Amino acid sequence: MEPEFITYQKFNDPALADELAGVLDAHGIEYQIQEETSGFDPSLVMSNAPVDYAVKIKSTDFEQVNQLLKESESVNVEDVEKDYYLFSFTDEELMDVLIKADEWSPFDVGLARKILADRGKTISDKDIADINEKRIEELKVVKPLSTWLLFVSYVLAFGLVGFPIGWYLATAKRTLPDGERIYSFTQRDRKHGLRILWIAAITFILGLLYRFEWMSS
Predict the structure, then answer these.
(1) Helix-helix angle 162-171:147-156, to 10 degrees
(2) How far is residue 17's CA from residue 29's CA, in Å, rounded to a whole number?
(3) Contact 120, 156 (CB under 8 A)
(4) Which among 5, 20, 85, 160 counts the fewest CB atoms within 10 Å?
(5) What predicted TM-score, i.e. pTM, was given to this entire model?
(6) Sign (positive/negative) of CA torsion 102, 76, 58, 60?
């Protein structure tokens, strides 16, 4: 069975998505670019979000693409202007960039490492590997929904909005930096999502029956 295409990175500018696509093309890596909108978020608030351009690759290619981007960006850090904002970061802030590399571009991560080295704080490849491993373990930790959000979810279950809420809680997944896919919610909250789906379905059916009976009388 072929690995599915999953989101590697999202951009709000199609030109940035095309730039990454160019790197993938140059190395013969299969990809897809899809326009996505997020009409629902973890806070369970419906919204009209702007369009994102998601570059999707196979999970088996994540490590290779990570390395390609690091190599391509490392060539450019030598030419960066000294007024680039990372130069004003403290050592602690630069370390935070390395620790949370998944939230920054490969260029910024590479530059943060170089600036630290220039300040006498060399970060070895082994240090980077240990940092990345620890970060992935942290990202695997899923926090349970608050009692308040669960209460609101059950209240909203008695209506059509219960379907997207229940489905989202029961099935939503996120992608780790190494390509692994994990559920966005705890097993307990996923069970709540299934119950909300059932409540929404039963409420919908009862509503149809009531309307049919009212129209027949």
Answers:
(1) 140
(2) 15
(3) no
(4) 85
(5) 0.68
(6) negative
